[in-house]
Amino acid sequence: MAMLSNDDLIASAQAVLNPRESGDMASGQVASILVTARGELYSGVCIDTPCGMGFCAEHAAIAAMVTAGEYRIARIVAVWRSEEGVLHVVPPCGRCREFIRQIDPANLDTEVVLGRDRSAALRELLPHHEWPAAV
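The structure assignment produced for this chain is given below.
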């Protein structure tokens, strides 16, 4: 499988954006696509609830990946469309960064797409991730 460009991944994530509001709940405002070390693609969308039981798009994509028996993420991206219709690439929140790391220690090398021409390894976005040394 040929390596997908950042533009390809962003377009794939954009394709699963499906915003919906129902009462106090919103879903699908953010979409994520990840590529595993085996080259498989998994997607997910966010679900926001007023009581905090929702989850991020990255969590949904990772859950689909784990359900399929994979744990190593090679690349990941998330996108959001503003009310004006402008598409934005959004970096994973701190909770998602830690979740990605905990799924597999090798995920510190996951490439996080930050824009059309920008990426960073998860380890760069999650500094000081090691457990502290004993004193």
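Interim note for the steering committee: The beta strands are 20-22, 25-36, 41-48, 73-81, 87-89, 111-115, 118-121. DSSP finds four helices and seven strands in the chain.
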